[in-house]
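U., I forgot to send this yesterday:
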Amino acid sequence: MTHIGILGAGRVGTNLAHALSAAGHHLTLGHRTQSDATAGPTDGPRIRHADHRTAAHTADIVINATPGDSSLERLSALRDELAGKILIDVSNATQDDADGLPGALRYPGGSLAEQLQAALPDTHVVKTLNTMLFTVMTAPGALNTPPTAYLSGDDEAAKRTVTGLLGELGWRPEWIEDLGDITTARATEAMILVVPHVLRRNGLAPFAVSLAR
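Result:
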C-alpha cells in the first residue's frame, strides 16, 4: 500500500484517485486551495482532499494531473515537497484553440516532462498515460485494440515502480513501452496534436494513440 498524492482534482485526477484507491492505496486529491479542498466531496476512507502543497508533502508518489500549460509554475513552487519522490506526469502542455481543445504545443522542441525534471532536479519524473482519453488510463482493457502506455524517465527504479502501478490499473506488460530517458517525452507529448481532430469527429469515445505490431 502506497500513499499517493494527485495534484489536480478534475476528471483526470479524480478518475485516477478512484481507481488507485480501489487497488488499495491511500490517496490525497490535491486542490488549488484549501478552501477548494474543504468544499470537495467525500470519496471514502482512502481518499482525502487537501491543497496541492499538503498533497505533495504527505505522499510517497505524486501524480501531476494539473493543466499542462500551468503545471511548471505550480509544481516548481513545490520543489521541497517533491524532493526525493517519484512524480508521474500525465499532463500535456498546449495552448487551447478557439473551441477549447488542445492546439499548439506549449514547449515545441521539448516537453513539459523535461521542463519539470529540470526545475525539480531532486525528483524522479516519469511521463506516462498522456496519449489517451482519461477513461482509458484506468480501463485499458475496455478498448477493442490493445492500447499502449509509453514511459519516459531518467531513473530506472522509478520507471519500474510506475510500471507496477500501471499493472494495478489493468495495463498488461506487453502494453507498456519504455521509450528511454526523459527527453523521449517530447515524442509522446507531440502526439496530443492528433487528439483534437479525433475528438471533433468522435466526441469523448475512449481511444489511445498506440503502437500496432
